[in-house]
Amino acid sequence: MGEPVTPLRVGIIGCGAISGRYLSASYDAYQVVACADLDMARAESVAASHGVKALPVAELLEDPAIDVVCNLTNPGAHGEVTQAVLNAGRHVYQEKPLALDRQSGAANLEAASRNGRLLGSAPDTFLGAGLQLCRHLIDDGVIGEPIAGSASMLCHGHESWHPDPAFYYRKGGGPLLDMGPYYLTALVALLGPVAAVSAIARTTFPERVVSSAPRAGERIAVEVPTHVGALVELVSGAIFSLVTSFDVWHPRSSMFEIYGTEGSLSVPDPNTFAGPVRVFTPGSQWSEHPTGDLPVQQRGVGMADLAAAATSGRPLRASGALAYHVLDVMLGVIEAVETGRRVEINSRVDRPSPLPVGLRPGEMDP
Ligand SMILES: NC(=O)c1ccc[n+]([C@@H]2O[C@H](COP(=O)([O-])OP(=O)(O)OC[C@H]3O[C@@H](n4cnc5c(N)ncnc54)[C@H](O)[C@@H]3O)[C@@H](O)[C@H]2O)c1
């Protein structure tokens, strides 16, 4: 499909645990050429193992051979690093969440517009085959009008595997800001924007003990709620319940379902790109729908979407505006917990357009 594209040149800032996924992804629309980190030795090690150049952060920002910066720093640095990239006149794609507060997120949307640059954000899993198939099934009316849904993301936190897990328990961490973006971005991409939220939460363990190398035995003071239950009212009128938790030992299942007037849809884990996708309609059993010709996709598809949009001028799908709405919803949930009141969500965003059917793996529509 389409003409061969000239890949945009990407520089990564933040060479931690997730950076390898971006460095090993393969999309026609971009190519990673450089990386940087506050820890120069870490940048050099990542650069050497992936055949790119390591640069100090300030030099990467000014390098004329870089078109797009991919911000893979910790959540507390997202707002500031993205602002610096936009002011340096580069497009930016960043990890979630967009920022830790609305002011910083809005300032970055404004900086993108002022500098004539694009701001894209993870998660991009809604562009994977599983969630794209769900989108087609909903739009085709297979479950009728969506009226409600329910999802849970239950686990016991990340201190058993992440090499430096403290940020998951600091402001900007917790199960809602860490994992909520996958669920809420999928929800908005499938059913549209959120109008209001109500919520309750608790912090079960005031301290976490790291069991992963190299920080095993270190203690982390927990600053955030670690079990959060939210009721989400969509502009469409549908009602969704979401529980995110770092307090639960081995639940038998985490789930994501959407209920319609004519049937029910079982949505795959929105932290993955594939299925299974299952549908129930009266008179039949739950049945799995194959993802067929939809490419599975991988981390990096959102950056490919941004690179293609930067070249052609079409709207972004994994956009800063979508990430801002999701941030607005998550902060609304925290405010609802703190005040015990229902919180109205002011921002709005359109559902991103579906990917065209028939793309081959690694291809993005112009
Ligand atoms: N680890 C995962 O499985 C995973 C999965 C999906 C998304 N993410 C997201 O990716 C981001 C990074 O996560 P991670 O697990 O790779 O974290 P990490 O702590 O392993 O790595 C972050 C890196 O960013 C660097 N850094 C921090 N502030 C910086 C700054 N101002 N300038 C330059 N470098 C800076 C740190 O030195 C570190 O090397 C987070 O937003 C996280 O939510 C992580």
- Write down the CATH topology of the largest domain: Dihydrodipicolinate Reductase, domain 2
What do we call the CATH homologous superfamily of the largest domain? Dihydrodipicolinate Reductase, domain 2
> What would you call the structural class?
alpha/beta
Q: How many strands, which pairing sense, and closed or not: the largest β-sheet?
A: 9 strands, mixed
Total of DSSP H or I helical runs spanning 4+ residues: 9
Overall body shape: globular
Low-confidence stretches: none
> Strand percentage, roughly?
15-25%
CATH architecture annotation name of the largest domain: 2-Layer Sandwich
Span from first to last CA?
A: 10 Å
Q: What is the count of distinct domains?
A: 2
Based on CA atoms alone, the radius of gyration comes out at: 20 Å
CATH level 1 name of the largest domain: Alpha Beta
The unique ligands bound to this protein are: nicotinamide-adenine-dinucleotide
Tell me the series of helices and strands, N- to C-terminal: EHEHEHEHEHEHEHEEEEEEEEEHHE
Helical amount: 25-40%
- Give average pLDDT, whole number: 96
Molecular structure report:
By secondary structure, the chain is α/β, with parallel strands linked by helices. The protein folds into two domains: 8-124 and 298-319, Rossmann fold (3-Layer(aba) Sandwich); 126-289, 2-Layer Sandwich (Dihydrodipicolinate Reductase, domain 2), CATH 3.30.360. The protein has nine helices and 17 strands. It has helices at residues 19-24, 40-50, 57-62, 75-87, 102-115, 129-139, 174-191, 301-312, 320-339, and strands spanning 8-13, 30-36, 53-54, 68-71, 91-94, 119-121, 146-154, 194-202, 207-209, 219-221, 227-234, 239-245, 255-260, 264-266, 277-280, 287-289, 343-344. The chain has a nine-stranded mixed beta sheet. The protein has a six-stranded parallel beta sheet with strand order 3-2-1-4-5-6, sandwiched between helices. Strands 9-10 form a two-stranded antiparallel ribbon. Helix 4 packs parallel to helix 5. The protein is globular and about 60 Å long. The model has no long low-confidence stretch (mean pLDDT 96). The chain binds nicotinamide-adenine-dinucleotide. Nicotinamide-adenine-dinucleotide (NAD) is lined by residues 13-19, 37-39, 42, 57, 72-75, 77, 81, 95-96, 164, 178.
